[in-house]
Design a protein that fits this description.
The chain is built from 7 helices and no strands. It has 113 residues and is an all-alpha fold. The protein has a single domain, classed as Homeodomain-like (Arc Repressor Mutant, subunit A). The mean pLDDT is 93.
Length: 113
C-alpha cells in the first residue's frame, strides 16, 4: 500500500481513477479499493480527495496564483467541478476557503515569538 500511497501523492494533480490505479498495481479495481480500506482504515476515494486537498491548500497559500491557475495545476477540467469539489470537502466556496487559509496562516505567523 505504501507504493500506492506514494503514487497518489506524487500524482495528486492528475485526475486519478480507480481503473488507472488498478492498471498501475496490476490488481482489479474492487480488490485494491477493498485492500486499501482494510489496510489503512480509509476509503481509497477519500484518501485521493485528501491528497488533492493538500495540494490545493498549498496553492491557495500562494496569493500570486489565481483560482484559474490552481484549477489548471490541480487537474480539474472545469471551474464548476472544482467549486463542487471544494464545497464538498470544506463546506465553503473556494474564495471563502482560501481567505480562511490565508487568515489562519497570517495569524500563525504573527503569533510566533
Amino acid at each position: 500500500m505504501e507504493y500506492l500511497k506514494n503514487y497518489i501523492e506524487a500524482h495528486a494533480a492528475e485526475d486519478l481513477s480507480l481503473l488507472q490505479l488498478s492498471e498501475i498495481t496490476g490488481y482489479n479495481a474492487s480488490y485494491i479499493s477493498w485492500l486499501f480500506h482494510s489496510e489503512t482504515g480509509i476509503r481509497l476515494s477519500r484518501y485521493i480527495s485528501r491528497k488533492k486537498m493538500d495540494l490545493i491548500d498549498s496553492y491557495f497559500l500562494k496569493p500570486s496564483l489565481t483560482i484559474n491557475d490552481i484549477i489548471e495545476k490541480t487537474g480539474f477540467h472545469s471551474r464548476r467541478y472544482f467549486n463542487i469539489f471544494i464545497k464538498r470537502e470544506t463546506g465553503m466556496i473556494p474564495k471563502e476557503y482560501r481567505a480562511r487559509l490565508l487568515q489562519k496562516q497570517a495569524s500563525e505567523i504573527t503569533s510566533q515569538p
